[in-house]
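Fig. S4 source data, part A: sequence.
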Amino acid sequence: MELVIIGLAAFITSGLTLFSGFGLGTILMPVFALYFPVPVASAATAVVHLANNLFKFALIAKQADWQTVAQFGIPAVVAAMAGAYLLTLFDLMPGLASYSIAGKAF
């Protein structure tokens, strides 16, 4: 049943965000995190992002203005790489605070 829920959430979320261009990770990540550890949920969200982007690319690549794609895409790739690097640094830092809910420490 979990696989059905996850699959439906991924499909519906991909459809909802097809036209807006954003929000896939915001909606999908919490759903995945309910069923998987956060690192696995993050990786699964990335896989859905990749599949969704490849699908959108196949739909609209012929109509794209490639100069505009380069102007926005190159800085976006650089910023994404820098963000990923910063996240790995932040992961190595000790936690600033902790709390417990229902006997579990976070």
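Fig. S4 source data, part B ends here. The mean pLDDT is 87.
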